Amino acid sequence: MKNSYLIIAAILLGAFQSWAQTADDVIAKHVDAIGGREKVKAINTMKLSGLFDVGGGVQIPFTNYYTRPDKMKIEATFQGMTQQIVVDGDSGWQINPFMGSKDPEPMNGDQFKMMKQQADFEGHLVDFKDKGYTAEFLGQEDFEGSQVNKISLSNKDGEQVTYYLDAETNLLLKETQKLKMADNEVESETIYGDYKAESGVLMAHSMENKSPGQQGSQKITINTVEVNVPIDDAIFKMPPKSETTK
To answer: Domains in the chain, please, with CATH?
Structure first.
């Protein structure tokens, strides 16, 4: 009987300890686990290359360029054509030859809002308060055999992101996101894995994206990461349209 009491007490204590955590506690552990704020902030530029698996045996090579603050360029090449998606601080543009356009076009407001989030390469959890987010600890649950701490971030623009952080390693395993786009709410889910250290910071090198209503998923594999390499600021500037389309 005494052993039964001890087991029950241990279970209750574990449950209390999990709920006694705050969002700030869980997020701080996560930032420490990936290498610490100082090492994250020491990364000023980044170039990464990999493959985007869209299914059906089709893999699209891509290269991403990032510089602080909030600058990103994505180049994806398929069948001899290259799509470019660029965020340059408070504006964005793209060239999408797969949609029949060879000239740069400004992004609309909703598209820019979504892409600017991706330009924050350190992620929302680092300095989340300074970025305008409010955090809430949602407790623990099981995710594919691992106990995870659930953290919800939200901001005044209606963005809501839920993070599933491994309770043992404090690394991000899954992220679900809700965005308000015009009159619609867009949902997405991303699974993270294959963590490797780059300049002392653990980064996921495998990501799988899923969206409700879509069959299958898109998988991203990062093959190379270069940190604090020279990146010409000119690559983020929207070029003029070609003379033939003016």
So the answer is: 22-245 (2.50.20.10)
